[in-house]
Amino acid sequence: MPLRSPLYQLHRELGAVFTVFAGWEHPVDYGSVVEEHLAVRKRVGVFDLSHLGRIIISGSDAKELLEKLVPRRLAGKPGVVDGPTAFLDEKGGFIDDVLLYPLSNGEWMIVANAASREKDIAWLQQWARRLGLDVEIRDETFSMALVAVQGPESLRVLGRVGLDVATLESLKRMEFVENLDSPFGKLRVVSRSGWTGEDGFEIYADPDTSAKLFRALVEAGARPCGLGARDSLRMEVGFPLIGDELGPDVTPIEARYWLVLDMGKVASGECVGCDAVWRRLLEGVSRVRLGVKLGKGVRLVPRKGDKILVGDVEIGRVTSGAYSPILERGIGQAYIDAGHALPGLEVVVERGKKRVKAKLVDFPLIKLGGRG
C-alpha cells in the first residue's frame, strides 16, 4: 500500500492524476504538465512536497554528527539553510543530497529525498552509535506537510492569502523564518528556496494548516502542479536527482555537483567520504554529467538508458529526460566519457533502432536571469 500525503483528498478534489513515486501515491499532474511548468516559469505554481523526508536531530552533539557526515562546513546559524549538501558513503558515493535547517531551539531539520529517507535515518543512527554522540533522531515526515510556492509571482500570491509579505520579502535566498503567523495557523518554517530555478518559498506546517494554505493559494490564482512539472523544471536548470544522476557509484566530482562541497573540508578529510572525493578530484574521473538537448521538432524525449553516440561509438548514457516547454524540445542529463565531455559536441541519441541528432550542453539549459 503506497503512502499518501495528508493533502491527498484535496488533490483528488482538484482533479489530480496520481502516480506512485518512491513509495508515495502522489499527483503527477492536474491535467497538463506543460501548462503547470509554464505557470511556474511565468506566474506562480504550488506543489505538495510532503513526500520529502523531514528528520529532526536534537541533542548536544547534533551539529558534531552532521559535520562528520556532510562535505560542507556548517554555519549552524538559525535562519540560514546549510545546503544543499550530501550524505556520502566511505567511497564518496551519494547516499542522499539534503538541506539542513539549524532551528532556533538548537535542533536541526534535515529535508531528504523520499527514496532515501529511511537510508538517511539508518546512516545517522549508525554514525551516532559509532561516535558515541548525544543525539536524538526523530522522523517527522508524517507529522508535518510541505507546500512549495514557486514562480515570479510567489510573493504576490502569498500576500493575497494573508501572509506577512514584508517578512517574506526580507528573506534572501536560502534564508528562513520560524513560527510565522498565518490565517490558517502557525507556519513552522518558511524558507526562500526551491528546486525550480525560480523565486519561491517552501512552507512547513502541520497537515491541517497546510491543506488550508494549499486550497487558499489555488483559489488566489496559484496553479496546482505535480511531479511531472517539478521534474521538467529541474531538468531545464540542470539539477540532479537521487536515483537518476546521483547514487552510490557517483561522487560529487563526476556529478559536477559543486554546491554540496566545501573544498577545504574535503581536502582536510574531515567528513565521511571526503578522502575518497579528494582522491577522485586529484586522479581525475572517467565520466562527467552534462546536459543533452535534442533538435526542435524532434519527436523524442530522452529517457534513462538511452545511448549517446558519436558516430557508432557509445560515449555515454542518458540518466533522465523531459520535454522542455521553454526550449520546445526534449532535453535530458547524461554521464559522458570524460574525453568526449565537450559542450557543443554534436551527438546522436539512440533508443532501440531509433536515432536522433542532439547536442551536449552545459547547465543550466535555459537562461535564468535573476531567478534563484
UniProtKB/TrEMBL annotation:
Reaction it catalyzes: N(6)-[(R)-S(8)-aminomethyldihydrolipoyl]-L-lysyl-[protein] + (6S)-5,6,7,8-tetrahydrofolate = N(6)-[(R)-dihydrolipoyl]-L-lysyl-[protein] + (6R)-5,10-methylene-5,6,7,8-tetrahydrofolate + NH4(+)
Domain Aminomethyltransferase C-terminal per the UniProt entry, residue ranges: 288-366
Pfam families referenced in this protein's UniProt entry, alphabetically: GCV_T, GCV_T_C
InterPro entries given in the database record: GcvT, GcvT/YgfZ/DmdA, GcvT/YgfZ_C, GcvT_C, GCVT_N, TrmE/GcvT-like
Limits of the GCVT N-terminal domain: 7-262
EC id: 2.1.2.10
Record-level Gene Ontology MF annotations: aminomethyltransferase activity; transaminase activity
Protein keywords: Aminotransferase, Transferase
GO terms for biological process, alphabetical: glycine catabolic process
Chain positions recorded as substrate binding sites: 202
Origin: domain of life: Archaea
Gene Ontology cellular component terms for the protein in this record: glycine cleavage complex
Family, similarity comment: Belongs to the GcvT family.
Name listed for the protein in its UniProt record: aminomethyltransferase
Taxonomic source organism: Pyrolobus fumarii (strain DSM 11204 / 1A)
